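Tutorial, part two.
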Amino acid sequence: MADAIAPLGSGYAQGTRLPEHLGEPIVRVERLEKYFGTNHVLRGIGLEVRQREAVMIIGRSGSGKTTLLRCINFLEEPTVGSIEVDGVRVDADPLHSRNRQYQEQIRQIRIRAGMLFQDFNLFPHMSVLANCIEAPTRVLGITRDEAVARAERYLELVGLSEKRDEYPARLSGGQKQRVAIARALCMEPKVLLFDEPTSALDPELIGEVLKVMEDLAHAGTTMIVVTHEMHFAEEAADRVVFMEDGVIIEQGPPEQLLREPRHEATTRFLHRFIHR
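Running the prediction step on this input gives:
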């Protein structure tokens, strides 16, 4: 069956064909603005991400990449605009952020959008298994047996079944990040958000984490990844988004954006990473 023609606003150029494996939009960001005091960090961001799509966000430090990711998960409160994940839409409303209904909508967004951080955020006093079953039992309310079965399945997926009874202090940085990925998968979210997941790792440990993420992308996991690993973006992404000064400058398939960027700012940025 022929691929669908990209609709306007999809992030793909009108007339290009979407990769056949992609589904309907599951994340929608509209007119997103974020201020920290007088600092205007995000300036009218619009972004759609489709089911089974792997989107990599690149750009200089301070371009707004991490803030965008944190707004999608409502770890940062958007100033203006709306976020929608899997049919749950929240319009930015900082003045009424303590409203009970508003907070429940944010909770539902966070259940659907799993976030992974640079520094793992594992509970140091809990074993690997306990880290993985904590949120499914407490937040989703599933039984301990079901949570353990999930944890065992996803620990096997990231290659750490034998570490289930270890504590984080006895793990390498790469192992900790793989546990964090398994823990996020145990919530079975609709989309995974990665904030430079390898930036805190020693160089020799980066590959083991990127391999897991690449496998997830190729298996059709919906993911939005802030990264500076250009080779990984080229191998794993369906789409690469370049941000600068709080706006999306350019986006497209990795083979186009990373090799033949259309915008001068993208070209300048990529010259730091890619030797032509």
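The chain has a mean pLDDT of 91. In part three we will examine how such features are distributed along the chain.
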